[in-house]
Hints:
The complex is a heterodimer of chains A (502) and B (321). Helices cover 41% and strands 18% of the residues of chain A.
Amino acid sequence: MLDYLASVGLRAENHRPYPRFDLSREAWAELVTTLAAKDDWSLLGLWADTAIVHMALRDEAAMTVGVVSLSCPEGRFPSVAGVRPGAIRLERTIQDLFGICAESLVDPRPWLDHDSWPIRLPLSADPPDPLGQPEPYPFLPVEGPGLHQIPVGPVHAGIIEPGHFRFTCNGETVVRLEQRLGYVHKGTEWLMAGRSIAEAGKLAARVSGDSTVAHSWAFAGAVEAAVGAPVPPRAVWLRALMAELERLANHLGDIGAICNDASFAFMLAECGLLREKVLRTADACFGHRLMMDRIVPGGVAVDLPAEGRDAILGLVRDIAVAFPPLVRIYDEKASLQDRTVGTGRVDGGLVNRFGAGGHVGRASGRGLDARLGPGYAPYDELEFSVPVFTEGDVNARVWVRIREVEASLSLVQQILDKLPEGPVHVPVVPMAGQGMALVESFRGEIMTWVAVREDGIVTRCHPRDPSWFQWPLLEAAIEGNIVADFPLCNKSFNCSYSGHDL
Amino acid sequence: MMVVQALLAGVFQVVQMALLLLLAPGLTGLVRVIKARLLGRRGPPLVQPYLDLLRLLKKEVVLAENASWLFRTTPYLVFTAIWLAAALVPTFSTALALTATADLIALVALLASARFFLALAGMDVGTSFGGLGSSREMMIATLAEPAMLMVIFSVAILVRTTSLSLIVDFMLSGGVGLRVSLALALISLLMVAIAENGRVPIDNPATHLELTMVHEAMVLEYSGRHLALIEAAGMMKLVLYMALIACIFLPWGIAAPNDGPVELLIGLVTFVLKLVAGAVLLAMFETGIAKMRVFRYGEFLGGALLLSLLGAIFLYVSTGL
Lengths: 502, 321
């Protein structure tokens, strides 16, 4: 893939660690046609700068990553959504934020912009005033006898993030689900632009609170790549330790919450207890339950205290004892299995077309993991396997989590065994450059791209949460299921609203 | 003598109605506390349902603009119907004023009317959740009501009456013996009770997921005192079913018409003990099972209907009517 990109584009300087190529309009259009034939070149991200569109691609066979850029002074670029459906919402977002128009986009409706912001096109060179008269959002038409609609949200009966779901049903059976997101748009990218690295890092940590470690790591990795800053070895290992603790906490919480959505509260109580233990250990070791702002460009903000090692080893022992009986209960509870097996099935082909990672991908046979491919330190020195299931149902997504909990327990132990001594932070010396990083969060891979000026100001940062490629699949998963099973499917996906709405 | 008896029956009736009103929130609270303890949580205090009802009674009622008279009157209708139905079930004494006028069939009719109005009110405002809840509730009802009636027929064939007080007298007389039909009827009635009260695995009273709700979805638009009445009616219904099962299948302790104060006291204490036992069993059952798919309701309640039907047939064959 990189050879092909080099042959059609001009390699840009100062883009690390993956190469970036400037493409002409014709070359971009040609790339779109090529993509149609290259199924294993998956979309990693599509984002814009003031008048440039960038696209990150991954060659899944060679495990290489490349970025292509198209300068579009007229404010239009050929859409890639036709060949990579995961790009549809990204292109709609680019239209909403930058006013750069994707030509022949199959679905040109606004996405994040509900016309309730004080300005329109916030990231364009000259943001216009809002229209003031928001038109009703045109949902896709559904026709047929006996169909009725159930609008759900954005405010839900439980305390969860806001999102609107429009169900079209025939009795209890869902014929189509259409999502409308964007209610928690915080203008993160707008806020990041023009801030110092430290300030932008704090914003990156708040893109999605449950994966704050992974988002901070992705941002730090991108900044370090951009300015060529070294990271002390101990800091690299501590980052992995925090990331695995975060994965543990989230997966444990999810397993319980999925069972609770089938009204089996016992698992929620037991898994909640284990999750709480992880969070308290994290608090004791790193001074924050979610370990927010603990990973910073140049290393980590706090070192693991001397007694922290024993605390974490004790935690691993506790979970290793308490978790297997819970897994047995889950596996042997017929009434619970009846709800999860066969519910919310996602086809493997669809997962590949959208390039979905994490438990959504792995439950449907797509076993990619950023820790292994393209891979990053220190996971090259650790032994672990990535669980892959092919059923694609809620049960498979639960099992991916169960296996990942076991893998993370082993990883935490290995990390503690191999944790090197030394400093944990080296100040970052600013330098102009662009960098990107892929980090595996508990949901899937996060791709963060950052451009830094020579005085250490972040001119543009784009954190792409894994939820971008998972949300659309939820619409497919629920089709043909019954309305009452939607919460179960939704929880088994557990996509981030905040990470997606930015 | 007759006048004294009638007077006493009237007094007992009033005492029973007050007792049920007083105990109902406590029973719901007890189930919640036991469920919480089983999950290793401390849980809300026992009096929380009382406090919740008081809070709701104090709050203002928020009505949808297009709510009709039906929506506003339904809470009163539902509460009255279920309270009245509960008053028919002998709890501590069979000497009840309403015994002579109302029987098991009347009880089923009262419950059905309450549900009918609630389902109409659910659809009245025109929200999608109300309609969703009403349609699910009616689906459950169409399956649960025949099963309930079959149970009543089984018992009626055996006892030759549908009057609850006479059933209790007959059961206490010891002439029943151990009967397969009654066991089948008991299982069937338990299943119906679970469905009718919206408990796991049919419905989850504690859920916050609007799409999975049945009863909660139907009453989602209610607020203030309206909601308080509907919640209270729901709590009353739980007591009603426990009292009903207890009076048909475990009638021991219930005082007979001419019993003295000691027997009455025993009746009261055993009734409360029966409720506590019921709460423990319900909480344990609910903790140990996940909710079933909406389309499985038919299998569950179809099973209940089948069991009660078998019970009636066995009885028919064995007694050779």
